[in-house]
Amino acid sequence: MADRKNKIITIVAPSGAGKTSVTNHLLQSFPDQLAFSISCATRKPRNYEKDNVDYYFISVNEFEKKIDNEEFIEWEMVYEGKYYGTLKSEVERIWQQNKSPLLDIDVKGGINVQQLYPYNSLSLFIEPPSIDELERRLKARGTETEASLMARINKASYELSFKQQFDHIILNDDLQRACTEARDIVAKFLFSDK
Ligand code: 5GP
């Protein structure tokens, strides 16, 4: 059996591109091989989100202490005043279960993780069909204010310009097809001896 101890998978996409759906599909497809890496975040939980499941929701103060203590493998202020970061202890916890962490992080974080683990990481960029479609999906989701919607749309255009830096680009014009494509790529990576 391939040693999963050091493998790490990142899924990167602009907000609203379908990243969560693809992530959940992968977690369900490989329950014995993958575990979701729970990030720390300083934004408020959405009403369907659970602390310690979707994120470790912490205060800005606590987050900054963790930065000072070098507890993160990567962190970013993804939106104005909102920190997000991947804890070293989280990745270690998952490796100790002999599973591979699946990171749902932003583009800069994804690039940082690839640089940290150039030989044992796999990165997938989920591309939305268009910015207009992205805006439509975000509005339909109904989780954003007008200002945070605009922030996400602006950031999405910027993030799209980095897509070539990732191992695979998966166009999400059809969620079912995008999920299957992601699953095939991840299976190859997980079950190879690389
Ligand atoms: P949301 O607020 O929609 O949950 O996430 C906003 C963005 O932050 C998404 O692109 C998400 O992938 C990213 N993100 C979540 N956790 C982390 C993390 O630990 N590090 C980085 N760099 N980005 C993260």
Explain the overall architecture.
This protein has helices at 19-29, 60-68, 88-96, 107-116, 131-141, 146-160, 175-190; strands at 8-12, 34-36, 39-41, 55-57, 72-79, 82-87, 100-105, 121-127, 168-171. The radius of gyration is 16 Å and the shape is globular. 42% of the residues lie in helices and 23% in strands. The strands form two sheets. Strands 2-7-1-8-9 form a five-stranded parallel β-sheet, with helices on both faces. The protein has a four-stranded mixed β-sheet with strand order 4-3-6-5. The longest helix has 16 residues, at 175-190. It has 194 residues and is an alpha/beta fold. The chain has one domain (8-190): 3-Layer(aba) Sandwich (Rossmann fold). The chain is built from seven helices and nine strands. Guanosine-5'-monophosphate binds at residues 15, 39, 43, 74, 76, 78, 84-86, 104-106, 109.
Keywords:
single chain, 194 residues, alpha/beta, Rossmann fold, 9 strands, globular, binds guanosine-5'-monophosphate
CATH fourth-tier homologous superfamily: P-loop containing nucleotide triphosphate hydrolases
Shape type: globular
Q: Give the helix tally.
A: 7
Order of strands, main sheet, comes to 2-7-1-8-9
Layout: helices, strands, pairs:
Layout: E1 8-12, H1 19-29, E2 34-36, E3 39-41, E4 55-57, H2 60-68, E5 72-79, E6 82-87, H3 88-96, E7 100-105, H4 107-116, E8 121-127, H5 131-141, H6 146-160, E9 168-171, H7 175-190
Parallel strand pairs: 1-7, 1-8, 2-7, 3-4, 8-9
Antiparallel strand pairs: 3-6, 5-6
The chain binds guanosine-5'-monophosphate.
